[in-house]
Amino acid sequence: MIKLSLYEQAQLAKYLRELRDRTGLGFAEFAARADSSSATLKRAALGKQVPRRTVVEDYVQACTDPGLERDISTDRAVRLWKRARYAQERPGRAYTEARPEYVRDWRDLSGALRVLHAYAGFPSAAEMEKKASDWGALPHSTARRIINARSVPTTQRQLDGFLKACEEPERRYFLWSEALTKCLAHPQGPAPLAGGLTLRNAPTAQRPVPVVWPPLRRQHPAGEGVPQLESMPPTAIRTSSNAGKTPCPGAGPPAGIPGARRIRPP
Fold it and tell me: Please, are residues 244 and 266 in contact by the beta-carbon 8 Å criterion?
């Protein structure tokens, strides 16, 4: 009897059990062909929790002979594992791939990359660094900042490393390249994300000037020599002329507003 907590876990456990049943081997003989321990293999087939990806791949290799059959079985098992991991981390949410064609700015790019990371089964930063292959293309520290919405790739090499680490099909790389191009063409350049952390590797000339949030309420009617907020340059927003102004009511900047920082009322 398989004890199941999630439908996706059920599908993964069922498939692993079907593979072992095809071999006709007892569990002791089957475990002898695998690198993982017999207890680990049993837990993987019970469906009580989502096993590690390496355990799933090891389970499939013990059930199949080298060749096309093993490749097909491993690919299906990994796809089921990714769905199970997604359901484990985001229960109740649809398992959908990222849509880079809808990216308009850095905030959208950050969100799309995090959706891609979730679609890939939430690999760790260390795993992503290894999968990126190209040395230095995606350090684990950079990968961690990207998946935590604290940074975004600013070069094509860094973006390609992230896509490769998330096993994005190469036929979709051009969509991500177009998304990055749109972001680089943004007037504010490589902008900071939630938390106000500026991208350190962004060119100095492209780093945006922090914007006050919430915007200052107008204290004078138009036409009295006081520059209006819409026409004020970013540098003017931070000058001492704003001293004593009352900020607009609100909880603060929406998540991901580039360069936004809070101000306290006097």
Answer: yes
